Give the backbone structure.
Amino acid sequence: MVAVSNGTVLGYARIGRHMRIPANEHVLHFEALAVSPSARGRGVGSLLIGALIELARARGARKLGLRALSSNHGAISLYERHGFALEGRLSEEMRLPDGSFVDDLWFALPLHSGS
C-alpha cells in the first residue's frame, strides 16, 4: 500500500505472514511501514495503519502483529493509539549505528471479537 499526494510518495506499508506454517495462518504481521520525514505528523502513518488493519480483517486474520525498536517513541505512540499492545521484548536485540543497543518490541492487535 502506498500513500501518494500530488505525485509524491509520502509513505508505504505492507503486511504478510510472519511464519509461513498452517498453525500460524491466522496471524498477519507488518512487514514494512515507513513515512517520509517530510510527511510525518500529517496523519499519513495513521491512514496506512488503518488501511492495513482493514486489509488484515478482510483477509480473515485474527491478529495483526508488528515490531518496533524501543527507541522509536513516535512509532510506538502511533501503534498504541491504534490499539496495539506490547506482547514481548527482546532485550538489547538490535545495535544502532552509534554502537548502542536497543530492545526489539513486539506489539499485536487482536482482530476478532471472540474465541
